[in-house]
Design brief:
Number of helices: 8
Oligomer: single chain
CATH class: Alpha Beta
Shape: globular
Number of strands: 10
CATH topology: Rossmann fold
Helix content: 25-40%
Strand order of the largest sheet: 6-7-8-3-9-10
Largest sheet: 6 strands, mixed
Structural class: alpha/beta
């Protein structure tokens, strides 16, 4: 499904990733573990085509990732970055605006599903009327997660999306994504709720190997 082969990446004259090979199958739930500076987020940027200068090969569904293919590949992936940038204005306006993006134009906004997801992730309709700048870190993360699900993608890239959640909500989030066998989930995280879940494969970026 997703294959990184012998990736070498230099950024600001520093080796960020060196000779990395990683294969992720459809339906895998993967946690990427590693200290700061090892290139965890860079893996996502490489897959999404945000970084073009590197050595090695990247394939998505057997299609090489390059400037000709990356647009179609992005339309199959939901990505939430560590900063959870929601812009300004009401939360509901941000959510609906995402569906106006060219990459999401084919997706229909589903009000009923949104309401069901709000309930599951323990948010209310009142939270949708809040200004995004007034939301707590945990509220922002949950709204970003809900939006990613509404986009109806099959591949999710998450960068520390549970860091601001309490233990209860961390568990609910992981459970939600693990139960869907069709979804492929790659989560950069230091949370034990990901790393110690028996259904999550843990890849140690420093050792360049899977944890046993």
């Amino acid at each position: 499904m997703i294959n990184f082969k012998k990736i070498n990446l230099i950024y600001n004259q520093k080796k960020v990733i060196e000779q990395l090979s990683l294969n992720i199958e459809k339906g895998d739930k993967v946690a990427i573990l590693g200290k700061s500076g090892l290139g965890k987020s860079s893996l996502f940027y490489l897959l999404l085509g945000f970084i073009a200068e590197y050595k090695g090969e990247i394939h998505f569904n057997n299609i090489p990732v390059n400037q000709k293919t990356v647009w179609d590949i992005r339309k199959q992936i939901a990505f939430i970055d560590q900063d959870v940038s929601l812009g300004q204005g009401k939360a509901i306006d941000w959510i609906t605006s995402v569906f106006a993006f060219r990459a999401n134009a084919e997706q229909a906004f589903r009000q009923k599903q949104m309401e069901e997801l709000l309930e599951y992730f323990e948010l209310s309709k009142d939270d949708l009327d809040k200004d995004t700048q007034e939301l707590s870190g945990g509220e922002r993360q949950r709204l970003a997660i809900i939006t990613a699900i509404l986009l109806n993608r099959k591949v999710f890239l998450f960068d520390e999306i549970t860091s601001a959640l309490d233990a209860h909500l961390k568990q609910k989030t992981v459970d939600f994504f693990i139960k869907n066998k069709e979804w492929t989930v790659i989560a950069i995280s230091h949370d034990s709720v990901w790393l110690k879940n028996p259904k999550v494969k843990v890849f140690d970026l420093e050792a360049k190997s899977w944890q046993q």
